[in-house]
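Readers of this paper often ask what the protein records in our data store actually look like. Below, we set out a record of this kind in full and without editing:
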Amino acid sequence: MSRAPTAPVLWCLLAAALFGASTPAAKVLLDGLGPFSLAGLLYLGAALGVLPFALRRPARRLVVDRRNGLLLTGAILFGGILGPLLLLSGLTLAPASSVALWLNLETPATVALGLLFFREHLDGRAWLAAGLVVGASVLVASPSGFGNAGAAVLILAACLAWGLDNNLTALIDGLTPAQSTLAKGLAAGAVNLGLGLFLEGTPGALPVVGLGLGVGALAYGASLVLYVSGAQQLGASRSQMIFATAPFWGLALAWTTLGEAITPVEALAGVMMVLALWLMHTERHAHEHTHAPQEHVHRHRHDDGHHDHVHPGLPAWLWHSHEHSHDDRLHSHPHTPDLHHRHDH
């Protein structure tokens, strides 16, 4: 490909900024809430935030097929329940800046799982970009306090859970991103809040509860919708390389609002991250490949060589989402491992 599509890259960057802001915000909220209760409020806030968008354009199929149901269940379990609980438990043991940096280990976890189990493919520049992201992750994570072994293990486990979630979510094509986020938010929010009420008692003051819901609506709800939309276009590995900037957004807030300092190693890691994003955005990948017939729903445009159905009056370059079908096709063109290109190499 000549370069990664610009819009999905921007969606992932904005998702990273929103989620990165949640780490210092959650650190503050943990003063008045337990980790289970806060995890529940964050995901219920995500569900509330996307509810109008999830209901605005319902999928035609009211019953999700078995494949999408299993993918969504796995995403809810690993990404909606285990990941947040592990993260928030780690936050009770370590500074917000350290946790924000350790979260960058989610990227190598996502890439490794994608290559091993989900038919992702990297070549040339993408491999170099992945190496830079992993290197930056190790640089910023190791000197920031891996001596706090308990917190570090919890955050590493959270990264593995989210790495699996990222790969599962990128393959969901029977629901819109808002609908899958709504399902994850309701299920994960109910489970975590229920555990919080049982183990931690009634949540704190009403303003703190409201703040938890508000942070969840933006940092989890809007962020998830943007990330899933990008991952469907770029694949889990590439979208996660972009999303790996999230800890740096969290660091920026920790530096400015919590008074935590920057280090030369963190600055170097930031430069490496920018170089990795440039390499990924300028990679090329094209070859002859075959598409089997399929029916799914995702954001798309009509100038990409795959979506030739007609909407009278709709410009070909405009991104939009609805359920549609594809016939079988053999052709060659630049592509990423999106929903249409999970073939072997």
